[in-house]
Write a structure and sequence with these properties.
The structure is a homodimer.
Chain A: H1 2-8, E1 13-16, H2 29-40, E2 51-55, E3 65-69, E4 72-79, E5 84-91, H3 101-109, H4 115-123, E6 131-137, E7 149-156, E8 171-176, E9 181-187, E10 224-227, E11 230-233, E12 236-243, E13 247-257, E14 262-278, E15 290-292, H5 293-296, E16 317-324, E17 330-342, E18 347-353, E19 361-366, E20 369-378, E21 381-389, E22 395-403, E23 407-409, E24 424-428, E25 431-434, E26 436-446, E27 454-464, E28 472-480, E29 498-508, E30 514-521, H6 535-539, E31 547-551, H7 573-577, E32 588-598, E33 608-620
Parallel strand pairs in A: 1-16
Antiparallel strand pairs in A: 2-3, 3-4, 4-5, 6-7, 7-8, 8-9, 10-11, 11-12, 12-13, 13-14, 14-15, 14-26, 16-17, 17-20, 18-19, 20-21, 21-22, 22-33, 23-25, 24-25, 26-32, 27-28, 27-29, 29-30, 30-33, 31-32
Pfam families (chains A, B): Cu_amine_oxid, Cu_amine_oxidN2, Cu_amine_oxidN3
Modified residues (2',4',5'-topaquinone) (chains A, B): 381
GO molecular function (chains A, B): copper ion binding; primary methylamine oxidase activity; quinone binding
Amino acid sequence: MVTMIMVLVITCQFLLINSQNHPLDPLNPNEITQIQHIITTSHLASLPHLNFHFVDLDEPDKNDVVVRGGGQTHEIIVELTTGYIVSDHVYEGDGYPPNTFSELLQAARLPFNSSRFKDLVLRRGLNVSEITCFPFTIGWFGESTTRRAVRLSCFYRNGTTNVFARPIEGLSILVDIESMKIHTLVDRNTSPVPGSEGTDFQFSGERPNPIPIPCDEENVKRGFSINGGDVKWKNWRFHIGFNARAGVIISTASIFDGGKNEWRRVMYRGHVSETFVPYMDPTSDWYYRTFLDVGEFGFGRSAVTLVGSMDCPSNAVYVDGHMAGADGLPQEVPKAICIFERYAGDIAWRHTEVGVPGKVITSGEPEVNLVVRMVATVGNYDYILDWEFKQSGAIKVGVGLTGVLEMKATTYTKADQMKENIYGALIADNRIGNNHDHFITYYLDLDIDGNDNSFVKAKLKVERTKTSPRKSYWRVIKETAKTEDKARQRHGVEVEASELLVVNPNKKTKLGNNVGYRVMAGGQPAVSLLADDDYPQIRASYTKYQVWVTAYNKSERWAAGFYADRSTGKDGLAIWSHRNRSIMNKDIVLWYTVGFHHHPSQEDFPVMPTLASGFELRPANFFERNPLLKT
Amino acid sequence: MVTMIMVLVITCQFLLINSQNHPLDPLNPNEITQIQHIITTSHLASLPHLNFHFVDLDEPDKNDVVVRGGGQTHEIIVELTTGYIVSDHVYEGDGYPPNTFSELLQAARLPFNSSRFKDLVLRRGLNVSEITCFPFTIGWFGESTTRRAVRLSCFYRNGTTNVFARPIEGLSILVDIESMKIHTLVDRNTSPVPGSEGTDFQFSGERPNPIPIPCDEENVKRGFSINGGDVKWKNWRFHIGFNARAGVIISTASIFDGGKNEWRRVMYRGHVSETFVPYMDPTSDWYYRTFLDVGEFGFGRSAVTLVGSMDCPSNAVYVDGHMAGADGLPQEVPKAICIFERYAGDIAWRHTEVGVPGKVITSGEPEVNLVVRMVATVGNYDYILDWEFKQSGAIKVGVGLTGVLEMKATTYTKADQMKENIYGALIADNRIGNNHDHFITYYLDLDIDGNDNSFVKAKLKVERTKTSPRKSYWRVIKETAKTEDKARQRHGVEVEASELLVVNPNKKTKLGNNVGYRVMAGGQPAVSLLADDDYPQIRASYTKYQVWVTAYNKSERWAAGFYADRSTGKDGLAIWSHRNRSIMNKDIVLWYTVGFHHHPSQEDFPVMPTLASGFELRPANFFERNPLLKT
C-alpha cells in the first residue's frame, strides 16, 4: 500500500520553512541548535536527567525554553544574538511540561526489563516479544502531585498490526518518570486478550478507482505560492508556522478587498490550543484516561508525515515541520503540512433569473478553496486538522476524527450477555469501545480589520405584535459583551438563538454597519457533561462552553494551562476569563471548542470512518458587498 | 458567461428517465399525455378554467390527478390501462393545490393591462416596460378562505438583470386567481426605487483558473451507471425519480454488505417534503411572506437546468426531469439532476501506527462520494439540494442557500440614520435585507435492513460515582419511542444530549447489537421561533422540532399538508403525529428539518455566497465492522 501510494506522489513538491523572515515564525533548525548549545554549555548542563520540553520562541515570553533536570522545571530566557542565558527561573506551581517522547519511549520499554512483568504475561500465555506498551498520562484526582508519572497500557500484537485492538486488560504499570522506574505493577487479569482476527486495518486489494484530481500537470495551474511560510492564494495571504505543541499555526491572515484596493487583516494568529478527551469509565484501569492531548503530548510532536493521494490530493504541496527534540537538537517531521486547492464540486454562488422578459439568466461560480492540513496521531486517534480558506472571505476550520478506538477487553461476545454497565458498547468480539468525548479548542486571535475588536451577541428575540395580521416575528438585539463573563456561550443551543460576531467597533462600512465576522457551528454542538466538581472537569473547565472571549495576553494561549500534565485547574482559560477583564474595543481572543460525544459502534472497528465537525468564520458586513463578485 | 460554460460542457451526457421500470417512478411523458387525453375527453373537459395541478402516480393514491375547474378542486383517479376515470371527488377542505405556473404567469401580467397601474408607476417616474411583477403566495391569517389569490410584488429592471434588487416598495396588487382579475391595487409609495448601481450578479471577467476535475476523459473512469432511474455506484444502489412537487426523489437505496454478501435496504424513499420561509416583518407589504415553497410552488416545478462546470463538476452526468404542465401535457426540465463522483480531498479513514517495533505503518483511503444534485430556484432564492452517498454507508444530505435576498426599499443609506425597527439589516444603498428563516424538511422513509423499524433516543445521562477517584461520567440510556409524541426532538440542543437512531429491532449483528442508523446534525441547528398561536406557525407547526417520527401512511408525505396554499394547519405532520400512533417495530418515517435563521449582511448583496447546512445518516451497528475495509 505504502509503495503504491509513493508512485502516485511523483508530482509532489517539498518545501522547508527555513527562513526566520516572519515575526511569528517558529525557530529554524539552526536557531534550535544554537539554543541547545547555549544551554548544554551552561550551568544547566550539570542537571541530572536534563530534558528539553519546550524550545519555542514564536512569541518571546518568559517560557522561551523549558527544560527539566534534577526533578525541577526551569524556565529559561535565552538571548540568541549574544548567546547569553538572560534568566533561569525554577517553576514551583502545579503541573508539568509534557513528558518528552524520549521519556515516554524509555517508560514504555521498562516492563521488558522487569522479571515480574515477564512472569505475569507468561502466566497469561503471552509471548513477551509480541507486546507493545503505551504510556498514558494519568491526569489528576485531587492528590498532591510531587512527581511526574505515566501509566502503561500494554497490548498484544501477535498476528496484527492494529496494536490497540488487543488490550491486555487489567495489567497496569505506573512509571515514575523522574526516576524512570516502575512504581507499581499489577495484573488484575480481568479479561483474556481478544483475538487478532479481523483486526487489521491495512488496506488490502486494489484501489477501486484511481483518484483523478487533477489528472495532468498542465491543468494544475497552482493558484498559490509559498515563500518561507508566507502563502498567497487568490484574495488571501497568510503565514504558516509549526511548533511542537500546537502543530500548524496560521498567522497574519489578511484578505484583499477589491473595493478598497487594500489588504485587510482577519486573524493575527490561530491554532489548536488544547484537546480534552475524557473516557467515561470510572473503573480502576480506565478512570484516569482524561487526556489533554495538546498539553500532555503536543500536536506538533504527534504530527505525522502525510501520504500523497491518501492524506492529501495529488495537487498538494507539502511543508516540513521542525521542532526541538528532548535533547534540544532539531527534529524534522517531513511533510507535516499539506496545502492544496480543493475542488469539491460545490457552488460558491448561483442564481437563475427568469424575471427578465424573454431570457433565462443563469450565473454563478464553482467553489474553489485552499486547504492547509495536518494530521496529529496521538496514540490510537488520528486528528485531521484543516484550515480552509474561501474566496468569499470565510475560513472554515475542520476537525476529522479517525484512527483506532481505545478498547477494553471483555469476556463478552454477545450484547445480550451483559447485565452490568460496560461503559461503552460491544463493538467486536471481546472488545468494548469505551464511551468518550473529544473537545478540540481553538485559539483565535482575530484582528478584524485591525487590532481592537468587540464580541457581539446578536440575539434573536421573539416579539409579539398587535398591529399586524401576524402575531409574532423575531428581531435582532445586539449586545456587545463588556467583560469576559458576558462572552461565555453554549453555541448552537436554541434555548436562546443568537448569532455570535467579532466586530471592529472602530470601522464601519460605507453604509454604517460595523465590520465583523460571524462564528458558526459546523456540526452538532457538544459541550462537556462531566460534573463541575469532577477533577478532569476542573482541569478542563473551559469545555462547559463552546465560546469564550478573553482580553489578549501573550501568556494566555493554552486553554488547560501551560503546564497541563497533572495540572490542577489553577491555570487556563476559565481562570483567566474569571478575571473578568474588559473585552470591549480591545485586542481580544476568541476560543472555540469543537466537541464530539462518542458512543462507539461496530463500524468504528478496526479503524474508524472519519467523523467530521468544525466551525466557520464568515464575514458579516466586513465587505461592502459579496467579494466573490469582481466589480 | 452562459456561452463560455456551454463550451466546457462538451463531455456531458444527457439521460432521460423514460421507462416505467420502477414501482416508485413518476409518470413518463407518454403516460402524462395519456392521462391528459383521458381527462380532456371526459366530462371534466367542460369545466371552466381547467388546470392540471398534480399528475402524479409515483404512489397510487386518491390524489392521482388533481385538477381545478369551475372554482373547485377535483381529485381524480385514472386507470391508465382502460382509459377510465375511476373516480372524481370534489375536495371541500381548507387549502388549495399550488397555483400552476401558467396561472402565476397570467397573474404577473395583469398589471400591464391596468391603466391604474400604469398611472401609478408613471407617477413614480418609472417606465412600465422595465417592470417585472412576481406573484407571491399570501399565506393565511385567520380569515375564511374561499378563493385562491396571490399578491404581486413589482420590481424595476431598468439597468439591471438582478430584478429583485430594485423593489417598487409599497406597490401591492392582490390578484384573484379564480377570476384572474386584480382585486386590489394600492401604492403606499413608502420609498423610492433603489438604484441599479452595483446590483448585477452576472459573472464578468475571466474565470481565474479552469476547474481541473477531472480534466480528461480517459481519467474519468466513471464509477457509476444509470439505467432508467437505477443508479449503481460502488457499494450503493438506489433509484432516482422526479416529480413536480418534491423535485428529486431517492428511493429503494440499498447498500451491499460484503460480509453478508447481500444488498441491505437503508431507505425506501426520501425527498424534500416542505420548505417554510417566514419573513420577520409584520408591516402591510411584508407580513404575509410566509412561504411554503414546496407546497405552494413545487421544487420540481422550480428545478433549473444545471450548468456544467458551474453547478456540477465536469465529470457529472445529467438527467432530465419530467412532469405535467398546467395543460396536463408533459413538460421537461433538461438537466434537472446531476450525478457526479465527488473528490473533495477528504480522508475516508487513516491511521499511523508506531507501536510495531521498527516500523511506522500508515494506511488509509481518500474519500470518494457520489452526489445527486438538483437546484430549485423559487423566485429570488436558489436551493442547492444534495444527496451524497458514502462508501462507509453514510448518506449526507446537504442544503445550500444562494441566490438573491428579498429586499425592501428604504430611504435610508446609513445604518445610524435608523431609529425605528427595520426588520432586517441595511445591506446596500436604500435596501434592507429582511430577516427570515428557512426550514427545509425531509421525508425519510427509512427501512433499515427491512420494513419494520423503531426510533431510539440514546440519552447521555451523567452519573455520579463514589467508587472511583472520578466523580462523574456519562452513560447511554436507550429509550425506544413507543408513540409518535415521544419522537419529537429539538436536535442538537445540549440541554439533553442524545444520539438519535432508527434501528431494526428484528435484526441484530452477530454481536447482538440492533442494526441501525444515526441521524446527525450537519450544521448549527435552528427551529422556528415564531409564537405557537401565530398563523404561519399554525400552518408549519412541525418546524418547532427538527425531528419527528410517524407511522407510515401513504397519504402522509407533505409536512404542511397536501393542499398547502392558504392552508390552515388542519393537515400536516403535526396533526398526524398528534394521533400518537405506535411507532415501535413499525414501518416508520423520519422527518428531519434543516433550519437557518438569516439576518442578512452586506456580503449577501447582490447575490449570496452559499450558506450550507444539512444532516447525515450514519450507520450505527448496521455493519459488523467498518465497511470501508474490504475483508
